[in-house]
Every structure is written in structure tokens, then in C-alpha cells.
Amino acid sequence: MKDTNKHPKFFFDNLDNLKREPYRNVIQKNIKKLDENKFMGALRFEIQNFPKNAQDDLTPSEAKPFYLGLGAVFKDSDWWKNSSIHDAMVFFHSAAKLWVPYFTKNYPSFPKKLTQKQKNEMFGLYQICTIYISWNAMREKKLRVLMGIKKGIFLT
């Protein structure tokens, strides 16, 4: 049986180290190794780990305020030059607490000390946002150019 706590625990145990790791590297790795079916499967998996009352708000749609808010990173090349994995996590939390009632209620501020359930949910949020951004970057060259990443060895 898989340990569902393994990745969230590792992520938050190493959060200080992630302050030095560029977030765009994560997106670049994702678009090189995943295809659209894997993105969609991973997104469904992450969303289903949340309570039913949060799942609809986390299901991607360009009409939902949460995803409109995330779209800000699609326009800001400076964000991509300077943002670490930690910065991305903080940004995703701030977007979620504004536009996803579940996060507004349960995570009004970025928790300093996390229970394992909170680690799982915050990591799930990070994964949902990362998958959504990666999926968009995979499909649109102009986003990859803005992000300063390459899709493949010889492609931009």
C-alpha cells in the first residue's frame, strides 16, 4: 500500500530548501515527461482527495475566479525569473484563500506548523496548481517562452 503522506511530508520538511529551487524547473520537468492524459489523471486524483464541498471550486475552468487568479502568472515574466517553489506555494495559497471557500475557512493564513492532514491538503493545492500551469504550458508555446522554459531538447 502506498504511503499517501510521503510526498507532502517530504515537501514540507524541505520547504526551506525549496526557497532556492526555481519553480519554472518543475514546470519544465512536467511538460517533458507528462502527456495530456497523465496531466488530467493526476489533476482528477488530486481534486478527489479534497472534501466534496471543495472539489467543484478546484475543478479547472477559466470561468472560475480561482483559475482566473492563477492566470496572473501567465502574464508575468519577472515572476518566472525570480520565483522559487516556496514562492509558488505561497502564491497558490493566497489565491486559494481568496477564491476557494474551503481554503478561506480552513487556511486563512499560511500555517507555520502543519498537521499531516494540512500538509496533504496544502501539497494537494500545490499539485493542482502545478498540473494546471504545466498543462497550459505544454499546449502553448508563448507561455513556455514567457516562462523561459523549453518543451523538449530541441524545442522551445
Description:
With 156 residues, the protein is mainly α. The protein contains ten helices and no strands. The longest helix has 24 residues, at 116-139. Helix 9 (116-139) packs across helix 10 (141-147). The chain has helices at 6-13, 23-33, 36-48, 52-58, 65-70, 77-82, 85-99, 101-106, 116-139, 141-147. The protein has one domain. The protein is globular and about 35 Å long.
Descriptors:
10 helices; 66% helix; mainly alpha; 156 residues
Topology diagram in text:
Elements: H1 6-13, H2 23-33, H3 36-48, H4 52-58, H5 65-70, H6 77-82, H7 85-99, H8 101-106, H9 116-139, H10 141-147
What's the quick description here?
Helix content is 66%, strand content 0%. With 156 residues, the chain is mainly alpha-helical. It has one domain.
Total helices: the number is 10
Low-confidence stretches: none
Mean pLDDT: 91
Roughly how many Å apart are the termini? Answer: 39 Å
Largest sheet: none
- The H-and-E topology, N to C, reads as HHHHHHHHHH
| Rg computed from alpha carbons, rounded to a whole number of angstroms | 15 Å
Instruction: Tell me the strand percentage band.
Output: under 5%
Helix content: 55-70%
Tell me the count of domains.
Answer: 1
Alpha-beta classification = mainly alpha
Q: What gross morphology would you assign? A: globular
What is the quaternary state of this protein?
A: single chain
**E-strand count:** 0
